[in-house]
Amino acid sequence: MGKVALVTGGSRGIGAAISKALKEAGYEVAANYAGNEDAARAFTAETGIKTYKWSVADYESCEAGIKQVEADLGPVEVLVNNAGITRDSMFHKMTPTQWKEVIDTNLSGLFNMTHPVWSGMRDRKYGRIINISSINGQKGQAGQANYSAAKAGDLGFTKALAQEGARAGITVNAICPGYIGTEMVRAIDEKVLNERIIPQIPVGRLGEPEEIARCVVFLASEEAGFITGATLSANGGQFFA
Ligand code: CAA
């Protein structure tokens, strides 16, 4: 049996590519998802990867979900905090609900998922935490005060926890994808995407989910043990942090 990897938001978009790449690399993968049952069923049918439904925004659900994954597959050694949502709006129109939903999932979700696996990783003296932040947490994005704040928070979380985990053999790193060709990005108004966003990407195209998945496989490996607290940007040259 390989090491167990748990990927949040792991049945769609970038997360699905991550789950598949980790499976190909020999991990026993559990893919968490929040709501889209049809997509999860189709994903399991296609890949054989087991899916688990809970919201990363709720601490008790995370505790219970992780307990189930560990009962089924064994202790989680690799956690990929990938689940994320957008509620884009210019700030003057942003509602408290739009703010809260994004912070609860994209920032508090990292606490809710990492806290229940942390003690086990410390006891076993091994772990890999990989947080999927965003280019927009690095540079900020108009229309995304909520998302940019949460994703910047993910980077602070990564750096603090990297210091705490180092002596226990746990690495904590972040990946900042740029604009990747997923449903989330394709939901942006086509005119905004084509006229305002793609022209800002020097390689001249959206990224592929697999280009992020390969970064995850690298950071998850035992060989990456000297890399911790790092931010790996994969954005087609759009922003140099
Ligand atoms: N900088 C400054 N001002 C801007 C701006 C920018 N980048 N973009 C728009 N504005 C201004 C407009 O010029 C306009 O000004 P006026 O009212 O003076 O004319 C005003 O803001 C309103 O613009 P819109 O007509 O676009 O407003 P809207 O309410 O129709 O749409 C929006 C707002 C939904 C946020 C839309 O602009 C949008 O979708 N923007 C893209 C946001 C984005 O990049 N989201 C990323 C999603 S993918 C993701 O998050 C994955 C990842 O990690 C990369």
UniProtKB/TrEMBL annotation:
CDD domains: BKR_SDR_c. One of its GO terms (biological process) is monocarboxylic acid metabolic process. PROSITE patterns: ADH_SHORT (PS00061). Signal peptide: none annotated. It is an enzyme of class 1 (oxidoreductase). GO terms for cellular component: cytoplasm. One of its GO terms (molecular function) is acetoacetyl-CoA reductase activity. SMART domains: PKS_KR. SUPFAM superfamilies: NAD(P)-binding Rossmann-fold domains. It holds the Pfam family adh_short_C2. Its EC number is 1.1.1.36. Keywords: Oxidoreductase. It comes from the Bacteria. Coiled coil: none annotated. Residues 3-178 form the Ketoreductase domain. The keyword Oxidoreductase applies. InterPro entries: Acetoacetyl-CoA_reductase (IPR011283), KR_dom (IPR057326), NAD(P)-bd_dom_sf (IPR036291), Sc_DH/Rdtase_CS (IPR020904), SDR (IPR050259), SDR_fam (IPR002347). NCBIfam families: AcAcCoA_reduct, PRK12824.1, PRK12826.1-2. Belongs to the short-chain dehydrogenases/reductases (SDR) family. This is Acetoacetyl-CoA reductase. It comes from Paracoccus aestuariivivens.
